Amino acid sequence: MDSQFLLVIAANIAIVIVGGLLAKVVPGSKT
Amino acid sequence: MSTQAVASAKPETRGYAWTTRDIIIVAVLSAIVGVANTGLSFVFQMALAGAGAIGSAFFQGMFGWGRSLVYPLVRKPGAILAVGVLGTLVAVLLGNPAGFYTLGWGILQGLAAEGVLAFVRWKKQGPWVNFIFSAVNAQFGTLWTWYLYGWSKTMDQYWLSIPLTLVSGGVSAGLLGWYLYKLLESSGLLRVALGRDS
Question: Structure pTM?
């Protein structure tokens, strides 16, 4: 696997983590 | 009006076990998604051929409307992934231009959205939650497109497309799905469709 491919995968996984953390703090209900 | 009828537009239990109601919603929605997204895919393929990563960014998000709609209705692990996989399977059978590779979008996007919702344990909901997981969902669509169509030669375009894809996914899938959910909830259509109108 080349470094470019790994960079793209890493960037996209980072987007999931940031998205998950954002989802925890934005307004929303748990009902 | 019974308590069950009042609550029937919302998930029946807060556990993770699927009910018959959940399975019906996922199955019906997947079929509708497959048909609608097959039509959308022709627009997407044209944008992709004409303008590469930037062109596809505007349309990538739209494919996630069904995943965005199913979350507030079911709110259990696997519902979005199931709609992603089953919806793309229907699209394959209907003649999506990408053939069986279409499944790659369903699987990757579904996994990405589930990954985001794992942070809130599939419990929290609201337009912003929909916006966020749909944005990430759309972005993972471009990951598959990047692999499938060999975008490694146009990396500048790919990096530029990321913010566009996130906004496109958040608005055209996330907020649209939330709006459709609110429409369904207020119309009582789900209560009737699931035989819980009494």
Answer: 0.86
Show Cβ contacts of residue B153 under 8 Å, excluding neighbours closer than 6 positions: none
Tens digits of per-residue pLDDT, B70-127?
999 999 999 999 999 999 999 999 988 788 888 999 999 999 999 999 999 999 999 9
Q: Where are the beta strands (DSSP E) in chain B?
A: none
Does residue A3 belong to the interface with chain B, where contact is any CB pair within 8 Å?
no
Whether B152 and chain A come into contact, CB under 8 Å, resolves to: yes
CA contacts within 13 A on the Cβ side of B74: 30
Query: Is A25 part of the contact surface with chain B (CB cutoff 8 Å)?
Result: no
Residue B129 near residue B68 (C-beta atoms within 8 A): no
pLDDT, one tens digit per residue, over A11-25 is 999 999 999 999 999
Q: How far apart are CA B191 and CA B132, in angstroms?
A: 28
Please write the tens of the pLDDT for every residue from B124-160.
Answer: 999 999 999 999 999 998 888 888 887 777 788 889 8
Residues of B in contact with A12 (CB under 8 A): 112, 139-140, 143
Closest CA relative to residue B36, chosen from B101, B78, B111, B91: B91
The answer to whether the CB atoms of A12 and B126 lie below 8 A apart is: no
Touching check for A27 and chain B: CB below 8 Å? yes
